[in-house]
Predict the 3D structure of the following.
Amino acid sequence: MQAILLSREEVAQRAEQLYESRIRQEVEVEENIGKIVIIDRANITGNARPR
């Protein structure tokens, strides 16, 4: 399998799209205020768990 190399800008754009489309509604709730969201870039599935 050939690796796909992305520029910083492309990575940032993809991350923002993922956050807006699949993660935001799950993590931006009252009980999560002050917590940190960790997104594993090696396994981007949209599953986010506030810590």
Summary: The first helix runs from residue 8 to 27. The longest strand covers residues 37-38. The radius of gyration is 13 Å. The chain has one helix and two strands.
